[in-house]
Amino acid sequence: xxxxxxxxxxxxxxxxxxxxxxxxxxxxxxxxxxxxxxxxxxxxxxxxxxxxxxxxxxxxxxxxxxxxxxxxxxxxxxxxxxxxxxxxxxxxxxxxxxxxxxxxxxxxxxxxxxxxxxxxxxxxxxxxxxxxxxxxxx
Length: 138
Description:
The chain has one domain (14-131). It is 67% helix and 0% strand. It contains 4 helices and no strands.
């Protein structure tokens, strides 16, 4: 017995919106970090590197959602959990020690600069990814 529901595709239905949002966030975070690193890396290297890491995580989740299948589902779940942990850690860090971040990251203040989508998106994605998993019989 597999963990996959018959006919369930991660990139279909509401999954399409997740693919689109993760794609947009990949481009936004990557563009932001590349421009900031090229223009003024010395100003806030930690913030710029964290935005680049966010872009890589977003890209991998986008790829996993498009690819589909049990292995991609597991990889996306792990990445979404890591993303959520990152948003919570960086969000708390930016509030507790704002001087460490002279410029914002994608995850600063729990994604406030992006309408809190960075904290909502991984939770929504994990619910969607779990939707396709059925419990194994005892």
